[in-house]
Amino acid sequence: MIADIRTLVEVETPSSDLEAVAAGAAEVARLMRERLGAGPETIVIDGVTHLRLRFGDGPARVVLVNHQDTVWPHGTLNRLPFTAEDGVLRGPGVFDMLTGLVMSVHAAALVAQSGRPLEGLSILVTGDEEVGSITSRDLILTEAAEARAVYVMEAAADGALKVARKGVAMYQVTVHGRSSHAGLDPEKGINAGVGLGLLLPQIAALSDPQAGTTVTPTVLSGGTTTNTVPAEARVQVDSRAASRAEQERVDAAIRALPEPIPGATVTVTGGINRPVMPRAAAEELLAEARRVAAELGLAEPEAVEVGGASDGNFTGGAGIPTLDGLGAAGAGAHADHEHAIIAEIAPRTALLAGLISARL
Question: Taking every annotated instance into account, which residue ranges of this chain make up the domain Peptidase M20 dimerisation (predicted)?
């Protein structure tokens, strides 16, 4: 398994490079053929490559959800190469979530080796999760529509299974003003940067800590030259909420932001990207995971509710039984210290195999 993980880590697949994502998908397909004796369908949507390996002719009863795109740009391997030392794996994407993907393939192989048919199992590997799953959302929901269980192979920072996730919304708020020469006639301009600055506290104030809602201005940009009154300024906004009502409250408030200064206008793009993954969607599968773990002599899995999102938001939000965080145990998603704990890989793969068997 470590060799397979290394193979995938060393094929860099930043989400923005569609050719690289396609190359990574080809390597995953090769791995599936080698380990499972079956090759996946390649599904290209708006240029993004996804894989689906479905066993049998009927609808999927168990769906393993993976992605093989990463946040890491080309060349990251030059400074953060793959290593397997001191009990941990390191390298770009090793934790989020290439170890989980390899676990999916090997867990399916374990089930097959036990003599149980894989009919009804589907393994999805998408190529745009890190940028919002824009092209893969419908594929995931269609594949899982009749599933008895969706297991999301995202990693777990402390090994705890994820039973609830906040919903996510992403916006770009743009202030439109009017340019003028900053030295000769600044009064003839409408300073979009000043306007945006006045809106930032209003945007941040939409957070509600008691309700678990965060609204965070993130990437700021605007202006053209140092001697020009900026005609445009913009901010990206990340919003997380634990209920649909809160998502809708924030959405309405952002779209109703006022004119910040005379003459300036405001436009808002984006919106709610992922629904809330409610705990109710995971409770039955969590109980089953604890039963399977006891049968295997493993420690009882802990459960956690998190603010980060995954493709489990789509299936759990649709009411499909969904358990998340079944991939690698480790830490450092999207950070230089990203790593997966080697000793956890085999038992977590065995647990996944048991869960697959219980629902097929």
Answer: 163-258
Contact at 8 Å (CB) between 351 and 294? Answer: no
Coil, strand, or helix at residue 353? helix
* The pLDDT of residue 158 is above 90: no
- How far is residue 99's CA from residue 343's CA, in Å, rounded to a whole number? 12
17 and 98, same domain (yes or no): yes
184 in the same domain as 157? no
Question: What residues act catalytically?
Answer: 69, 129
What ranges in 117-243 are assigned the alpha helix state H?
A: 137-144, 192-204
Looking at residues 208-217, what average pLDDT do you find?
97
In terms of domains, do 150 and 75 share one? yes
Q: Which phi and psi (to 5°) does residue 28 adopt?
A: -65, -40
| Residue 187 belongs to domain spanning | 167-274
Radius of gyration of the chain (CA): 23
Looking at this protein, which amino acid is placed at residue 212? G
Whole-prediction pTM: 0.92
Residue 170: burial class (beta carbons within 10 Å; 0-12, 13-18, 19+): middle
Q: Both 143 and 234 in a single domain?
A: no
